[in-house]
Amino acid sequence: MPERDLQYLAELAAQLRVDSVRAAAEAGSGHPTSSMSAADLMAVLFACHLSYDFDHPDDPANDQLIFSKGHASPLLYSLYKAAGVIDDEELLSFRRRGSRLEGHPTPRLPWVDVATGSLGQGLPVGVGVAMAGRLERLPYRVWVLCGDSELAEGSVWEAAEHAGAEGLANLTAIVDVNRLGQRGPTRHGWDTGAYARRFGAFGWHTIEIDGHDPGQIDYALNDACNTRRRPTVILAKTRKGEGVLEVENREGAHGKALKDPDKAVAELGGVRDVHVEVRKPVPGATPYRFAATGIQVPAYSVGDQVSTRTAYGEALKALGAARGDVVALDGEVADSTKTQTFAEEFPERFFEMYIAEQLLVAAAVGMQVRGWKPYAATFAAFLTRAHDFIRMAGVSGASIRLVGSHAGVAIGEDGPSQMGLEDLAMLRTTYGSTVLYPCDANQTAALLSEMADLDGVSYLRTTRGDTPVIYEPGERFPVGGSRVLRQNPGDRATVVAAGVTVHEALAAADELRASDIPVGVIDLYSIKPVDAAALIQAATTTGNLITVEDHRAEGGLGDAVSDAVSELGPRVVKLAVTDLPGSATPREQLSDAGIDHTAIVAAVKRLL
Amino acid sequence: MPERDLQYLAELAAQLRVDSVRAAAEAGSGHPTSSMSAADLMAVLFACHLSYDFDHPDDPANDQLIFSKGHASPLLYSLYKAAGVIDDEELLSFRRRGSRLEGHPTPRLPWVDVATGSLGQGLPVGVGVAMAGRLERLPYRVWVLCGDSELAEGSVWEAAEHAGAEGLANLTAIVDVNRLGQRGPTRHGWDTGAYARRFGAFGWHTIEIDGHDPGQIDYALNDACNTRRRPTVILAKTRKGEGVLEVENREGAHGKALKDPDKAVAELGGVRDVHVEVRKPVPGATPYRFAATGIQVPAYSVGDQVSTRTAYGEALKALGAARGDVVALDGEVADSTKTQTFAEEFPERFFEMYIAEQLLVAAAVGMQVRGWKPYAATFAAFLTRAHDFIRMAGVSGASIRLVGSHAGVAIGEDGPSQMGLEDLAMLRTTYGSTVLYPCDANQTAALLSEMADLDGVSYLRTTRGDTPVIYEPGERFPVGGSRVLRQNPGDRATVVAAGVTVHEALAAADELRASDIPVGVIDLYSIKPVDAAALIQAATTTGNLITVEDHRAEGGLGDAVSDAVSELGPRVVKLAVTDLPGSATPREQLSDAGIDHTAIVAAVKRLL
């Protein structure tokens, strides 16, 4: 590299450090030192290797950059300033109310695709973006800037395993090994060899460099681009706070503005006005999409016994035929969730993520960045493994579709470890989420198609065992709606149910009618958003609501109902799973948990 | 090994297979094939290496065995039968209602310490048990039987990193590499070298063997016992369904009873009556505990400004002085959570788990198996990373204490990725949990001590910023209680708050009183169990409850209150975080989220 270029890169990096210090100083908080360690790495990437059109962030040929160490946001924003897409005034709005420049990057900025700040998520999400690139037959690259501390997260090794085994050569991890975590030295310090051995064992190409030497950085980034059949990790030895004696390579300087920013800026050579010209990709690229071959929505006859998981599999296959942008991801349980039905028809759009639920969700987030419609399925219970990824998908505004099978005690003999009893609560708390819970096969098929165009995180909960088909094929079930299944003028109470308990509620209503106690039944298939109007009407009419759910008493259907009617003040009796189940048949489980038709009858009688 | 011993081991293994087939056949479900692959491994372990007194499962000198592949429960129960602690009749009660022999092992059995069935959890929990062994200065060994499929879970590599780096030589992982997962071949099939390279890179001693050769198994287990300063992984190549042609090494035979069990039993040589004599440990071992040095509970003066996280750190230090069984674990944020205060006083009882929250919780579960009182702390937001481990801790009945700092929007500028807004919902759904949320420093100290003797998963939520001390030192705050802070005969409504919102509620009550609208205020520091009596009384008196919480609207304090009073039917207005926060000061955040005193005043006025 010519001396002139090296000088330019040094100047650019110095400006990035200066601006990181200034932004944090103005905010009075933030992570300047974690930004300074990675400044040379990002200066060389932006000046020499990144291919990105800042005027057209949606250009499908753009490289994808993920700041997994999201706390280094001052560096990212300083890069934006150097690239000329934000000005100095906006830079100095860092961390202020209303500013797009938040403490950690979010997609409020047009050049940020996924929110980061929960460590260990950037690389798994990057795997999904890289998988999409292969599918789209586009040559963009995925660059992920990681910290060294976050390599302790297991999710990083789920990503390393998948990328290594699949040979995702379009993925490069750049690890800023600054040796200092939040509270002190990392486990491996500057031993980049320790990380190289680990990534190497997982099938990655590894390069160890001095992360402050632009020549070595340039060589490594080139090497990453030229490496075939393997992802590359660049392990860059750096110094936290590089360039300012007060904080350089010192403990106790994490996550704080510098004490004397003016002195620091002077030490770094003062404020500059260096511009970085990021190379634009060749225009006109079109991502490959699969052809739509027509739809044949599955139809089930009323009275048939079909599990909702079976209907999900068949409906997903139909959706795959109707739309070329639908993809499916599996946590090595596709035969149980029935994603297998889709996989057999569309093997090239089916992704086996093995038993790695964090990666399962992260890869879905990565694929939706590129416009795909991912459906990711596993047992409802095991989605809890990915809770933090689901939470962050909500922050990112990512449109992913999650499917949790084997909901509740109704699974029967397998016991509590396999029962999804917390999933409704988890998905309801997710920002911007939709939570759906069908009770029959036709309803499942209808809701599955509804999900395809929903924004945000949406969730479909399915049941292991067969349930009777009660709705005609082709009926519509809008998100946010409900179905009144029993309603009589003299109703003494209304039973609100969803999924497997709808059938228990119907049986209970029949039994109660025989005892001259008419009750209404609502199928609340949309748990979030919830049909407040229908619930309020029922509450107003009968004054007594009985909720019944195959889920824990906290945070699920019962709470959704209470919440919808709470300002009205009807009596609400909640039937839910409160004890720890053991092994038993599905019927015994429903009875033992007190959520079967007998329990509903007893609750109504007790209430009245 | 003499021929006679080899014959005995072959007979014992054959019986384990026969009994696994019989138990699953009787149940009509279960995992006989996954049991059969590991039968030789466990036969040799039980006959030659395990040190365990089945009559005294609490003997501290006992080895610890964890079936991480919990679906191989038929094998575990067949081992119990061979050891003579259950009879054939009980074996055949497998998966039946009321039986201790559940689909996946749980501590309902006296010889099972932790429930398994969610894969990838046994090894991280084993790390905690092994850490305890080192602390207790006892020579017991920890044996973890893993499947090959579950090695895809990131949590396994969090455990591998910690055990390798810490040199936990008392830990042995035995991996049953039967090459077949649930839906088909695993990623690496029989390539035990792929796993050996990975574990080797993480610092483990690795041994690759034929898992059906008792001589090789015996050698490997011996080698594990004789290896110093490193944990050992035995990678055993096996065949799923070994011994029965119908299922041996075949796809599609996962998780099902055999079609023709009688033929299979005949093929395996018929029913046997082989007894295995498990060697007992030398009696009289006593685990080391640290000396108690007296307690000096921190006391804060009313009116002082102290953050609850600071009080947690100081109270934990005091508790550590008072009790020799208290240990603390950190997810590399001890300076933020303030576990650091404990760490500085008791470095030998402080465990840095780095940024690996699944391992953080799992290690706590492992340590409590041995009678320690672990407190594990990180940001509340990042506890979501460990949701599945918390869920399973609930199933295990594990007594662990979790502390989540940086709760809610009140953290300020850092933005949504760092805000714990889902933690109350997550912890409330956990079976058998306790959820506490103090509003001042003295209350924090009091609740922290209460937690030490609680059963099950307990959770303390702390706040980043300073809050005024409102309670006198030494006041008691029983779990399940609440505090009425304002109450007047003419109260028009009652505001129910906890943590940071208590102070907002008090300010609102003062403002409202100035407008001649008296309202009551309840500090609901115990979110679960909740003080239903106090809430019902308030609801009965004023008829109007306003809940206000720095948490999402779903599953938190508001839902807990609604639930407690739902059968009574007062009006409940819920103030909670509904939008996606950005960066702003703590005060701006509370205002933007509509949970500050101004919002409370407005809500009361709107309601009345």
Provide a descriptive summary of the structure in words.
Two copies of one chain form a homodimer. Chain A is α/β, with parallel strands linked by helices. The first copy, chain A, is 38% helix and 16% strand. Chain A contains 22 helices and 19 strands. The first copy, chain A, has a seven-stranded mixed sheet, sandwiched between helices. A five-stranded parallel sheet of chain A has the order 1-2-3-5-4, with helices on both faces. In chain A, strands 14-16-15-18-19 form a five-stranded mixed sheet, with helices on both faces. In chain A, helix 1 crosses helix 4 and helix 6 (122-136) packs across helix 14 (357-369). Chain A starts with a helix and ends with a helix. The mean pLDDT of chain A is 97.
Largest interface: A-B, 108 and 107 residues
Helix content of chain A: 25-40%
**Weakly predicted, low-confidence segments of chain A:** none
Write down the oligomeric state. Answer: homodimer
Biggest sheet architecture of chain A: 7 strands, mixed
- The secondary-structure class of chain A comes to alpha/beta
- Bin the strand percentage of chain A: 15-25%
**Rough outline of chain A:** elongated
Side by side, the strands of the main sheet of chain A go 8-7-9-10-12-11-17
Alpha-carbon Rg of chain A, integer:
27 Å
Number of distinct beta strands of chain A: 19
Give the integer mean of the pLDDT values of chain A. 97
Q: What is the number of helical segments of chain A per DSSP (H or I, 4+ residues)?
A: 22
